[in-house]
Specification:
By secondary structure, the protein is mainly alpha-helical. It is built from 14 helices and four strands.
């Protein structure tokens, strides 16, 4: 979609809840005599504002190599203008980002969950262990430190010791300060604690619950008296640092690993293959009847590509794999099975 209005997760979410979901098709708020337009889930403007998140229009085309712009599609511009007016009011400056308190809370919750449960999953899957983290290579610590410093705007750049200190505070068992002075006994005690944490589902979930609770308890509110809906929430400095370190470390060490990149590449191949088939000449004939009807009802090439995009983006993993298999004969399927 690079030359047809782009694709971006938050923009697609707004489009799904405001247009693609089939719960409501027009309602009493629309003038009589007008065609009923799809209203998706027919959510309030305040909820739609929290979904909007990035308040800028995605360019119709993006040069190769340029970063993806986070925002909303041009097809939802009129809706976004209405959201700004309804939620922000007439006094809202034109260029002020419309990030509601609900959106800010959602962002914090996302960061907390991402940093905490990805760490737990990495232990469960055997990607990482506390011991491995505490003896991380300098190159990994350096990359994590740079990413964290950039995200939190830290000067000077975070040290390796500061990164490891975050993990030490998390992993060391309660009462570690009362451990025997004998280095051998101390080492054995720590080793057992680390090994148990990595292998015990009970200890892993207990740690996650503790980290989530500490993050939630650190949240503070910055109330906006002029625009209450645009009030902000934030984590304490210490918890912000912890969340960012966990996020960056797990992302770099686990999510960027070859074991994860292989299935990710497969997913890219599946999505690209399906999109190429459906957007090609006569590709619309491969789509279900209702989607084909929408496609044929459009003459604008960009609008047609958006319909293809919506169809592919709405696929579950299982459906996408099956669809791709039917295109490429990866598995035998009856021709009488519906698409």
């Amino acid at each position: 979609m690079r030359c047809h209005g782009g694709f971006e997760g938050n923009a697609q979410t707004l489009r799904i809840v405001s247009r693609l979901e089939k719960k409501v098709q027009g309602n009493d708020r629309q003038p009589q005599g007008t065609d009923k337009q799809p209203l998706g889930l027919d959510l309030t403007f305040r909820v739609l504002a929290s979904v909007l998140k990035y308040d800028q229009e995605i360019p119709q085309s993006r040069p190769p190599g340029d970063k993806i712009v986070k925002g909303y599609y041009g097809s939802e511009k009129l809706l976004v203008d209405k959201i700004r007016k309804k939620v922000g009011g007439d006094k809202l400056p034109p260029k002020q980002i419309l990030k509601t308190i609900e959106c800010a809370i959602m962002d914090l919750a996302d960061d907390i969950a991402y940093s905490t449960y990805d760490l737990e999953d990495s232990f469960k899957a055997g990607f990482l262990s506390p011991s491995e983290i505490l003896v991380s290579k300098d190159a990994l610590l350096d990359e994590v430190a740079k990413k964290v410093s950039s995200a939190l705007k830290l000067e000077p750049i975070m040290s390796h010791a500061a990164v490891l200190r975050v993990f030490t505070e998390i992993f060391l068992p309660q009462g570690a300060g009362d451990m025997p002075q004998d280095p051998t006994e101390n080492f054995i005690e720590q080793y057992r604690a680390y090994r148990n944490l990595a292998s015990s589902g009970h200890l892993r979930t207990k740690l996650s619950s503790q980290l989530v609770n500490e993050a939630i308890m650190s949240v503070t509110l910055d109330y906006n008296y002029e625009h209450p809906s645009l009030s902000k929430v934030s984590l304490s400095e210490k918890i912000s640092e912890r969340v960012e370190v966990l996020k960056q470390y797990v992302f770099i060490s686990m999510i960027s690993s070859s074991r994860v990149k292989l299935p990710e590449y497969r997913g890219y191949e599946v999505v690209s293959g399906i999109f190429a088939a459906l957007s090609g000449e006569k590709g619309f004939l491969l789509m279900p009847e209702d989607v084909r009807g929408q496609y044929e009802g459009q003459r604008d090439p960009n609008a047609r590509m958006r319909i293809v995009c919506d169809f592919v983006a709405g696929m579950t993993d299982r459906y996408a794999m099956e669809f791709y298999g039917r295109l490429h004969s990866d598995s035998a399927q009856s021709m009488f099975k519906p698409v």
